Amino acid sequence: VTRVLSFGFKYGLPADADLVFDLRYLPNPHHVRTLRPQTGLEEAVSDYVLQNEETEELLGDLEQLFAHTLPRYEREGKAYLTIAIGCTGGRHRSVYLVEALAERFRAAGRAIQIRHSELA
């Protein structure tokens, strides 16, 4: 089972993370007053995150990385793999990226579980 979770670095790394990716270099929607109360599940935030060309580039890079590595983890008998994607507060960038990655994984026929640590 592959799990992809979003989290906020300001709350610490998830204890169950096998792989960790840091999105804090992407522009932060928290600094836009109208976006601050929203989350990465909402269209205005996803539009903001996607307007940066580095976001789409990162998604493509991660998709390619996981296309190569996930089958190898499975081959080695790793029953669970947790991919943690973090931003500062875990409510905007990381949430959007987790949802976008999960959509791409599912389109490729891969079963994915998602969790948003800071939205619970």
Please provide a written account of the structure.
This protein is an alpha/beta fold and 120 residues long. It contains 3 helices and 4 strands; from the N terminus they run ββααβαβ. A 4-stranded parallel beta sheet has the order 2-3-1-4, covered by helices on one side. Helix 2 crosses helix 3.
Write out key terms for the chains shown.
120 residues; 3 helices; single chain; alpha/beta
Rg computed from alpha carbons, rounded to a whole number of angstroms: 14 Å
Helix/strand order, N-terminal first: EEHHEHE
What fraction of residues sit in β-strands? 15-25%
* Low-confidence residue ranges: none
Enumerate the strands of the largest sheet in spatial order, edge to edge or round the barrel: 2-3-1-4
Mean pLDDT, to the nearest integer, reads 95
Total E-strand runs? 4
Percent of residues in helices:
25-40%
Structural class: alpha/beta
Number of helices: 3
* Sheet having the most strands: 4 strands, parallel
Q: Specify the overall morphology.
A: globular
Distance between the termini: 21 Å
Short description:
The chain is an alpha/beta fold. It has three helices and four strands, in the order ββααβαβ.
